[in-house]
Each structure stands twice: as structure tokens, then as C-alpha cells.
Amino acid sequence: MENTFSTSNHTQGNSVNDAVKNMTFTALMTAVICILGPLSLPIGPVPVSLTNLAIYITMYVLNWKSGSIAYVLYMLIGLIGIPVFSGFTGGPAKLIGPTGGYLIGFLPMAMVIGICLQKVWNKPVLSAVVLEAATWIPYLLGTAWLSFSARMDFSAAFAVGVTPFIVIDFIKVCAAVCVGRILRKRLGVLG
User: Which end of the chain is more exposed for a tag (fewer CB within 10 A), N or C?
Assistant: First the structure.
């Protein structure tokens, strides 16, 4: 009887430790997104930002649910006015502005990356393919919103909102695959 009780307590202790570790890493990765997200280079209506790099790395460190929560927390922090969006901006106007579609598109991108990385995180080429393919979610949603909000045709919005970023974002993908795999091994990911 004592043995069963101590095994039960040990199992409960592990699940509590896992929950605390998960909450801590979720908060930490939210902070990473908040720190990297505002860093940007304005090159037109859509700036070069480190937000997607932060999300890529977040999805390596956390499982898909916690990684998505980290991004939602980042969005909420920005929406209440704290300047965590590109260019050190914040508030709801950013979401309805020209880049709002990209911000919205990052959430399904994060979810897709997180789900797929569970299976391929230790295969660098497949991981890069997953990150690159998922990046097209915010590309398309962002372009559609940019086209609507700036009253541009879709091809013009694509030319300013995606074309200049394809190579830069691929470099971010490669960096995230290298850094993310190391972090995932060292920190561990909760399932």
C-alpha cells in the first residue's frame, strides 16, 4: 500500500513539475516574441520583422498548444497598447492596419509548425520545409488584408508584402532550424 501511494505522489509531482515547466517556458517564449517582435526595418507598408523568427524558435521549444498560447499572449499584450509589434507599436490600430493580416496569419502558422515539428524536428531539411511552407499562411492572409486595407490589387500587395521577404524569411527559417533543434534538445519539449 505504501509503495502504491508513493508512486502516485511521485507521478503527481512529475505532472506538477511539468505544468510549472510548461508555464515558465510559455511565459519565457512570450517574452522572447515581445522582445524580438518590435525589432524591424521599415522598407514599405510591411516592415522586415523578427516576429516570425521568434515564433519559429518558440515552436521548437514548446508544444503546439503552448506555443500558440505564447503567440496569443503576445498579441494580447500588443493589443492593449504595449509596444511589442513591429516598430515598437501597439494597440488595436495595428491589427486593422495594413500588416494586421500578417499578425493574424502568424497564429495558424504557429499551430501548423508546432504540430508538424512534433514529428520532424530532428530532421533539418524536413523542418525547414515545414517552416517555409507554413510561412505562406501569413503571406497569403497578410496579402489579402493588405490588398483590402490599402485598396491595392492582390498582385501589387503580394509584390510589396511578400516578394521582398522570401529570401530574408528563408534565412530566418535556416537560423531557426539550427537554433531551435539545439534548444529543443537542451530544454526538452513537453508533449
Answer: N
